[in-house]
Amino acid sequence: METRIVRLTKIPTEMHKVLKFENLAASGGEAKYMIAEGLVKLNGRVETQKQKKIHPGDVIEIEGCRLEIERDVTT
Q1: Which of 29, 22, 7 is nearest to 75 (CA)?
Q2: How far apart are CA 3 and CA 51, in angstroms?
Q3: Which of 58, 70, 72, 75 has the fewest CB atoms found within 10 Å of its own CB?
Q4: What is the pTM of this model?
């Protein structure tokens, strides 16, 4: 499984935006569909809330990719 570190400047951020920004979905609509269909895990559990807020320390898993969320401290 590929692991990526995602550094967020805006806390919290909606999960569908993270998926789109990381190019795991072609659009926000596709990201919302993937979440609604139960294809995304947040911290090891299936998450179906499209507007779910993501915080540093969260881990998103989708299609063999693991996103570890951190706060961007450079801005």
Answers
A1: 7
A2: 23
A3: 75
A4: 0.92
Comparing CA positions, the residue from 31, 61, 63, 62 lying closest to residue 49 is: 31
Q: Which of 65, 75, 64 is nearest to 21 (CA)?
A: 65
Residue closest to 62 by CA, chosen among 32, 45, 39: 39
**Considering the domain 2-71 in this protein, what is its CATH number?**
3.10.290.10
> Do the beta carbons of residue 8 and residue 70 sit within 8 Å?
yes
In this structure, how many other beta carbons lie within 10 angstroms of the beta carbon of residue 25?
23
Of 51, 57, 64, 46, the residue nearest 8 (C-alpha): 57
Would you give per-residue pLDDT tens digits along the chain (75 residues)? 899 999 999 999 999 999 999 999 999 999 999 999 999 999 999 999 989 999 999 999 999 999 999 999 885
Q: Distance between CA 66 and CA 68 in Å, rounded? A: 6
